[in-house]
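Box 3.1. Reading complex inputs
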Amino acid sequence: MKIIVDAFGGDNAPLEVLKGCRMAADELQVSVVLTGDEAAIRKCAGENGISLDGMEIVHASQVMDMEADPTEIRTAYRDSSMAVGMRLLADGQGDAFVSAGSTGAFVVGASTIVRRIKGIKRAALAPIIPSAGGKFALVDCGANVECRPEMLVQFGIMGSIYMEKILGVKNPRVGLVNVGVEETKGDELRLETYRRLQLAPVNFIGNVEARELPKNGCDVAVCDGFTGNVILKLTEGLSSALIGQIKGVFYKNIGTKLAALCLKKGMMEFKKTMDYTEYGGSMLIGISKPVIKAHGSSNAKAFKNAVRQAARIAGEGVIPEIEKALAQMKETGGEA
Amino acid sequence: MKIIVDAFGGDNAPLEVLKGCRMAADELQVSVVLTGDEAAIRKCAGENGISLDGMEIVHASQVMDMEADPTEIRTAYRDSSMAVGMRLLADGQGDAFVSAGSTGAFVVGASTIVRRIKGIKRAALAPIIPSAGGKFALVDCGANVECRPEMLVQFGIMGSIYMEKILGVKNPRVGLVNVGVEETKGDELRLETYRRLQLAPVNFIGNVEARELPKNGCDVAVCDGFTGNVILKLTEGLSSALIGQIKGVFYKNIGTKLAALCLKKGMMEFKKTMDYTEYGGSMLIGISKPVIKAHGSSNAKAFKNAVRQAARIAGEGVIPEIEKALAQMKETGGEA
């Protein structure tokens, strides 16, 4: 399996990318292709004692600017490490692509360079979010701020296949994020999506309220990208704020510090269940080849896990399975 | 100050309502008018040793059905405890109204029986949400699933006055909940609202991402009711899920239980800062008289605090202040 990695994407590039790729090359059955300024990659690796043995480098002279118009990935930034990596993938010179760079450029680049699966209206970002006693795929979490019902239905189908194939969840429970559980709740988008999801080839459990998401209320949470982005960021912000406040309780005085010491093991385990780096990155589902958007602040471990995830998606045939589901829906006259 | 309270609203009615009203009548400078089935109120009070001294009861033969079409508050449920309370308020037989009943019926009833402030497009629910080191008003949190820019601008103005008058926040920071901080982010609704909020008579600090909300990122979070509902419910659900998981760490074995004991005081203080019952209920802002929607699962303390909050809103002249701001905007040619 050959995974292409954007060496210049994210806040900690290229050092953490290189470290993560080294770990991936050593620990997993993958070979890595790095894209980016070759001299800078070799210099960073040399200065930090990271061996590049067995890794290929494909030179790219630019880095995609986080502030740039995402569509410029095809024009002003066509020689960026992200654009070059996507072209390699499109040309069949690798099995999957990973980047922690600009989300907007990633979505535009993947949709236009690698291209969408035939019949898919829009690609969607699908991070895996830990919940009490489980985890769920949040689709879409920001690729599309405005959505139509047929897009949301496809998000549900693709998310379901992803959870089954990659996370091993049998018959994933697909929920529509809404302001109430009754099917009469929500705006026109939710009402129509509800009707269509009932006919889709997924285990649709109806509307799910946001309060149930952290309590294992569903395996696939379907929503527009605006709502998904709010859910993802609020989950991140609230978790870290609450943990910060609890730390304040722990570090109040000598007595509480000693007490906290006894709880350390349990708290570490708890924090691990909440750690997004465990799940790698967000698959951009709906693209014809596996593309993984790693979190902008990814560290080496997160990059390694994103590479692992990319390899699994390629190996488990998630994309052919999505194509099959779409074809079946067409045959049976179901709309997608 | 005379506060009208729906004795049959919420999961714990009428017992917790009566207990809370007793506490309010004893501890605060208010008199209470209860609406609902008089015999049932007297029976519940008698059985539970709650004195109704100094409280007035206005009989209402019905209870608003949680499942009913909210507009039926004016037809099939016109003699419900909620409708009767709202008519008393509209007729000037009290200074404010509190109910923990159906949110939909509450919004429809308040908008059509008590009526909106002249010039206000839509009323909005504005709960106060605790955050690390502060608190913020979330406007709207569910009264309007679909919104136009002029509505959101008014939510910002009203929320700002509310935070200043009732929570004592000087020059409240008004933020627009969005998927990024740049003014080019979001859908048409966000783009246009951003432009208009820049001209509004508030301290507009620009877009705010959901991850900043729990970290005191703004004092007034402006959003459509769909997004606000997701934020409120996710905050509730995630907080309780995380606290549940931490409890699991504490109660693991004898050692951790002893350690947890040392942290009890701090944890109790922490939990208190997160307790929604401290802030009473959500003001439905934009209505011409003070109406407070208490949480459906309110206990006696939450009802007492909602009565206190209702009295403060009436006493501090929040509504005249909103009317003044609207009049000023009209004079200066500002749009609202």
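In summary: The radius of gyration of chain A is 21 Å.
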